[in-house]
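Here is one chain, start to finish.
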Amino acid sequence: MDINGRSGEMAVFARVAQEGSLSAAARALGLTPSSVSRIIARTEQRIGTRLLIRTTRAITLTAEGEAYLRGARRILADMAEVEDAITDQGVPRGRLRVSASLAHGRLAIVPLIAAFSARYPAILVDLMLSDEVVDILGGQADVAIRFGTLADSPLTARRLGDTGQVVVASPDYLARHGTPQVPEDLLQHNCLRFSFRRAVSDWPLRRDGLDLSLKVAGTIEGNSGEALAQLARLGAGIARIGQFSVDEDLKSGGLVALLEDYNPGDREPIHAVFIGGAAMPARVRAFVDFLVEHHRA
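Its structure:
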């Protein structure tokens, strides 16, 4: 690899951060440890600050090193995308990293992957299902499926649809604890809540045309809508989760919708989020277009 330019230095630094040691990075890059050490020292001297703290046991990034790593990864990804866009020649190819939540990914995204892969056999789809939010700008994914209002960012978003929320419990739980008739009854029940940093314990409801917010409580929290739905099916409590994730349970009777007369009818938009622009790889464009065409919430 060309290690003389700044992009080469960035690639070496990113590999050191990934491997956690100079020697491991040197082996991966086909360089000597002393060469890698000189490149890091040259980079630090040019920038004028320490990027790595080196000990006999490990390498730790400084705050400046963390910032430099994020920028380096973004720049290297942009360079790769430009080259990919040029070499695609109209045929989408390469690895496509897709991030989706557990429940929505399993129910709505996984069924589309086989058809997409059959249409674009040169694309390797790397599907990651997790309810944690990935850092697209940091290079953790090419496309992510996001729910709710999006924060301002340099990312591009295309709307795929929307979904409502429903309060549910199992027949077994209701038989043991009673069925809530009015919103305030929820205060006497074990409510299963999300533990996201952005999550709140208040559940929005509506009575006589007026919005109300009820602060519920319970003994179980989780960061996965699918996990909360399963807990509700097992009779652990009452959950308020996305309609799409419990449609089959509602149809089969495994779960019962509660307080529907007080459902505010709020809808969460669903977006595909990615790095757009002229250098967007053909594989990303193809996948997003496919989602817009075929996605069903």
